[in-house]
Amino acid sequence: MVRARRFSVAAVCVIGAAIVCLLGAPSFVRCSGDDEGSDVLVLTPETFDEVVGKDQHVFVKFYAPWCGHCKRLAPDWGMLGTSFKKVSSVAIAKVDCDAHKDLCSRFSISGYPTLKFFPKGSLTPQDYQGGRTPDDLIEFVNREAGTNARTSKPPSNVVVLTPSNFDAIALDASKHVLVEFYAPWCGHCKSLVPIYERVANAFTAEDGVVIAKVDADAHKDLGSKYGVSGFPTLKWFGAESKHGEDYEGGRTLEDLVKFVNEKAGTKRNVHGGLTADAGLVPELDEIAKEFMSVDDESAKEGLLKKAEEGASKLTGAAAAHAEIYLKVFKSVLKKGADYAVKEGERISRILKSNASAVCGGVLKESEVEGVMPLALAAKRPCGCRIRLVCVFSLSGWRWVFAE
Q: Taking every annotated instance into account, which residue ranges of this chain make up the domain Thioredoxin (predicted)?
């Protein structure tokens, strides 16, 4: 459990759109939606007493958006909500203690996540001290509420391949595809299932990455075509090469996510959030450092031209991120050397007072772990970096310049 602390976005520091001073704990935001789905009831000071203590048993998660343990619990809490979706006598809910400190103080919440079960008609909760797997949570609620709900598993993000769709998906030149050739009776295949599902979950926001599987026992011709002689066999069908490269690395979640990132050029962590170096363009980092260290405007203009030349040689995500660098350089030239620091402070104030103003929706902290590496010469004690804002839209993660 993480001890409660004040959530601070105090100038989120990253490479790409504004230079800000790191004043507090790093954090990033995303819009609309989280890992729990829509079956978990969101309680606020205005709605809490309308739900709790009435005609339902209510199991409440008190959490903070920045809490790592809370993030890890989120998918299972969402699964719990789905499992009791059709049980009218039970509600699965959550309270954001960062946004509603007084409500959480009312129930003496001192660490996150804290789980409390409120029996029907009672505002006196029972502390939950059990395990936190979906089965543990469901068993507890069933016992306390006298219900008989069963685990409701979310839909899989692993794409099922057959002879009818294999070529269209695995051989799509615009996609990087990891394919597991498996057999239903294979013990090692069964052991890989939960890990492989999490790999697929980690890359759901990447349009160019597909995590797939094919039953090579049922479709022997496919297995034979790609030289599959044992199960499970993992093969990589990269966008640039479709011969089916054998994956020979480890089979932990970390190993597989690292492999996909390296092959596809993505920057995902095991939770599906962005890694600490997402958005960085090594080819421009040294130019950025020099740009921020010189005072002469003509020298800055020369470095901008150099950056533009370097950016013109980039492709894919690197090219998109390079545009952010260029926009920062131009803004600094137009508005002055202190522009980036002021912009960072302005964004920080917005996030502290009204996070929804950034992207027009309820913002949640993303699962980015830490801040992006220092890439600029820091003239202030706190250090400075160029900044990107990470926004979650219907199409997935995207970097935007907050201006």
A: 19-146, 147-265
Cβ(104)–Cβ(96) below 8 Å: no
Give the pLDDT of residue 111.
Answer: 93
pLDDT of residue 22: 24
The CATH T-level fold of domain 159-264 is Glutaredoxin (3.40.30)
Contacts 24+ apart (CB under 8 A), 70-77: 70/2, 70/112, 70/113, 71/35, 71/271, 71/367, 72/271, 73/113, 73/132, 74/34, 74/35, 74/36, 75/35, 75/36, 75/154, 75/201, 76/132, 76/133, 76/134, 76/137, 77/36, 77/40, 77/137
Alpha helices (H) along 203-246? 220-225
Active site residues: 67, 70, 186, 189
pLDDT score for 264: 94
- The count of C-alpha atoms lying within 13 angstroms of the C-alpha of 200, restricted to the half-sphere facing its C-beta, is 19
Domain ranges of the chain: 34-145, 159-264, 282-400
Q: For residues 390 and 400, what is the distance between their CA atoms, to the nearest angstrom?
A: 7
Q: Which numeric CATH code is attached to 282-400?
A: 1.20.1150.12
Cα–Cα distance, 1 to 144 (Å, whole number): 24
User: Are the C-beta atoms of 396 and 338 separated by less than 8 Å?
Assistant: no
- Helices 68-83 and 134-145 cross at an angle (nearest 10°) of 50
List the structure tokens of 3: 């001890």
Which range is most confident: 210-219, 273-282, 361-370?
210-219
| CATH number for the domain whose boundaries are 34-145 | 3.40.30.10
In this prediction the pTM is 0.56
Q: Is the pLDDT of residue 42 over 70?
A: yes
From the CB of residue 158, how many other CB atoms can be counted at a distance below 10 Å?
Answer: 18
CA-wise closest residue to 375 among 298, 311, 281: 281
What is the C-alpha to C-alpha distance for residues 145 and 18, in angstroms, rounded to an integer? Answer: 52
- The reply to whether 159-264 shares the fold of 34-145 is yes
Burial class (CB within 10 angstroms; exposed 0-12, middle 13-18, buried 19+) of 181 = buried
**Encoded tokens for 347:** 């964004």
